[in-house]
Amino acid sequence: MSDTQLTKDPISDDIRAAMAISLRGCDELLPQDDWLKKLTRSAQTGQPLRIKLGLDPTAPDIHLGHTVVLNKMRQLQDLGHQVIFLIGDFTTLIGDPSGRNSTRPPLTPEQIKANAETYYTQAAKVLDPSKTEVRYNSEWSDALGARGLIQLAAKYTVARMMERDDFHKRFHEGNSISLHEFLYPLLQGYDSVALKSDLELGGTDQKFNLLMGRHLQQEHGQEPQCVLTMPLLVGLDGVYKMSKSKNNYVGITEDANTMFAKILSISDDLMWDWFTLLSFMSLPEIAALKLEIEGGRNPKDAKVLLAKEITARFHSAAAAEAAEQDFINRAKGGVPDEIPELSLPLGEGGALGIGQLLKQAGLAPSSSEANRLVDGGGVRVDSSVVSDKGLKLAAGTYVVQVGKRKFARVTLA
After folding, report:
1. H/E stretch holding 310
2. What is residue 194's three-state secondary structure?
3. 163 in helix, strand or coil?
4. pLDDT tens digits, one per residue of 224-247
5. How far apart are CA 410 and CA 413, in angstroms?
6. At how many degrees (to 10) do helices 138-153 and 179-195 cross?
7. Domain boundary assignment for the chain
8. 288-339 pLDDT, tens digit each
9. Fewest C-beta atoms under 10 Å: which of 105, 126, 162, 400?
10. Phi and psi for 353 in degrees, rounded to 5?
11. Does domain 341-412 fall into CATH 3.90.550.10?
């Protein structure tokens, strides 16, 4: 069926709905007309579209920021399309230069293998494993060899490569750019050729690499893929994108109580972006909830809904309910049902100082940090705030609390 015929046929409600799902929360969909044609052709022929997401296993764990694109993949998967979860075991050897102001040190093959082993297991908490094609780009990148790599490099110019923002900035600031970094976008683009993808997803920082896939597919005589970029999720601090280095993240393997409490800590304004990018609620449902909040309903009610939905996704509905109750107990100064229990020896004179107790119980990294916590009013023993850094505890059992979420039942003997 020709594109001319497709454009003449009226757009069905199903296609409009699929386009709305595609656009939900996205930053850009390029070119939209091409994606509409692909959706229409797929509906008329019954042939699912091939939708690709590549992730380099640079770390062993995935946080909620990574799930923004995984959520979009799941939405498109639920429309009946074929999603391809691509693990970039070969490209990780180079290191993605996106957003970098210096050469990224590559990981060893051993590190990559160890990280890749946990990556898909975690991603499968969002994607439907029975409908997901898992691939590794070493399958075709290794086979390229020196000759194939030279032929691939001939399909792009240095001038166009230097149009890339991070390369352009580094060059003019006098920061080094290694030649192997030019290979990264070429190889990511070649992944699209190897997989014959119709759509590639990524964060806004991946736009150059995603467009490279379109270019190389055209060079290889394929219909070019469309490109869908998703915003980078702002972390718990409400300022920077979610990352472990900023310690503003929610890991999807964190325990339910911690996950719930972290999500509840975000600002009322940030909450709505998280609803759009992370919740599976429909946009009309989110809009109705927002109207209720604007009409006087407590914003915390909406935040609790979000925290329970996400916690249930990565744990269970029962775990989410328990996490909510745990949070309520802590807010009231109560003690969670399950806390670590340990025994510590008494010090000289038959007592143990509060600083040493916190350190030995793993509630503070050092005695000096323990003292700082006491000074800040963040330490409680049996629900009473400790204000004396010189406090010594005699033999007995105590419930020790640091901050809102750290507890231990300590027996001194």
Report:
1. helix 299-314
2. helix
3. coil
4. 999 999 999 999 989 999 987 788
5. 10
6. 120
7. 3-230, 256-331, 341-412
8. 999 999 999 999 999 999 999 999 999 999 999 999 988 887 776 667 767 8
9. 105
10. -65, 150
11. no
Is 359 marked as binding a ligand?
A: no
Amino acid at 184: Y
- Tell me if residue 412 falls in helix, strand or coil: strand
Structure tokens at 67: 């799930």
Contacts of 81 (CB under 8 A, 6+ apart): 42, 48, 49, 50, 51
Yes or no: say if 374 and 337 are a contact pair by the CB < 8 Å rule. Answer: no
Q: Specify the fold of 256-331.
A: Tyrosyl-Transfer RNA Synthetase (1.10.240)
Which phi and psi angles does 51 have, rounded to 5°?
-120, 125
> Per the structure block, which two tokens stand in for 235?
């972390």
Please check whether residue 256 is in contact with residue 320, taking contact to mean a CB–CB distance below 8 angstroms: yes
Please tell me the total number of residues recorded for the chain in this structure. Answer: 413
Amino acid letter for position 264: L
DSSP string, 39-69: HHHHHHH--PPEEEEEE--SSS--BHHHHHH
CATH superfamily of 3-230: HUPs (3.40.50.620)
pTM of the model: 0.73
